[in-house]
From TrEMBL:
Coiled-coil segments: none
The protein's name: Outer membrane lipoprotein Omp16
Cellular localisation: Cell outer membrane
Domain OmpA-like, chain residue ranges per copy: 65-181
Organism annotation: Pseudooceanicola marinus
Signal peptide range in chain numbering: 1-23
Assigned keywords, A-Z: Cell outer membrane, Lipoprotein, Membrane, Signal
């Protein structure tokens, strides 16, 4: 019996098909640059983020607020119908103060919230008292009052848990980055990394904030 051999053209076609199948699994050394297989899609993201910040396309405020929320608890909770800070709340605010001291250029707002028990007008006043209590504690920890704002409360309008019953998770304040202090000598001009580095060095060495109360003529915001 004679063995039939495939024509050379068929053999080449088969090789091409085989290479195509290899390329289909996401890797082909013939069509991709050297080292491409090690990139899972996030290579260069840090550089891209820095470029967006430097050019103003990504807000400094958003960037710092995301970091603040990731590194320290931004929320404290309260007992029913109370604006008194308990031990757990003071511990969280102390951690917030330590973080805030790293960035003397940055301002913060504290938003007060309540649960759904009671009238809207009463809850707005209660929520504002809670925000003011948190701000007062941060000031006692050495943060300039010019950098902190207790805003008009959201009252009962933004519950985390929607229930008409008393709910501790809804009785809270939330601290957020709001902007930068205008006319401060260290105001950011594309030197975000330098500010972060300086903050860590000063904090570890116990160097106090360079910002003192009343030094900013009211301390108005820039970049909100």
């Amino acid at each position: 019996m004679t063995t039939r051999r495939l024509p050379p053209i068929m053999t080449a076609a088969g090789l091409i098909a085989l290479l195509g199948a290899c390329a289909g699994d996401g890797y082909s050394p013939f069509t991709r640059e050297a080292g491409a297989i090690v990139d899972r899609g996030d290579f260069g993201n840090a550089t891209m983020n820095n470029q967006l910040v430097q050019t103003g396309q990504r807000s400094y405020v958003v960037n710092l607020n995301e970091r603040f929320a990731a590194e320290v608890p931004s929320t404290i909770n309260f007992a029913f119908n109370s604006a008194r800070l308990d031990a757990a709340a003071m511990a969280v605010l102390s951690r917030q103060a330590a973080w805030i001291r790293q960035f003397p250029e940055v301002r913060f707002r504290v938003y007060g919230h309540t649960d759904l028990v009671g009238s809207d007008s009463y809850n707005r006043r209660l929520g504002l008292r809670r925000a003011q209590a948190a701000v007062s504690y941060l000031v006692a920890q050495g943060i300039s009052r010019d950098r902190l704002e207790a805003v008009a409360s959201f009252g009962e309008t933004q519950p985390l848990v929607y229930t008409q019953a008393p709910e501790r998770q809804n009785r809270r304040t939330v601290t957020e980055v709001s902007g930068f202090v205008q006319r401060h000598p260290n105001i950011l001009d594309g030197k975000y990394a330098a500010v972060v580095y300086r903050g860590y060095v000063n904090e570890s060495a116990g160097v106090p904030s360079t910002l003192t109360g009343g030094s900013l003529n009211g301390g108005s915001d820039a970049g909100e």
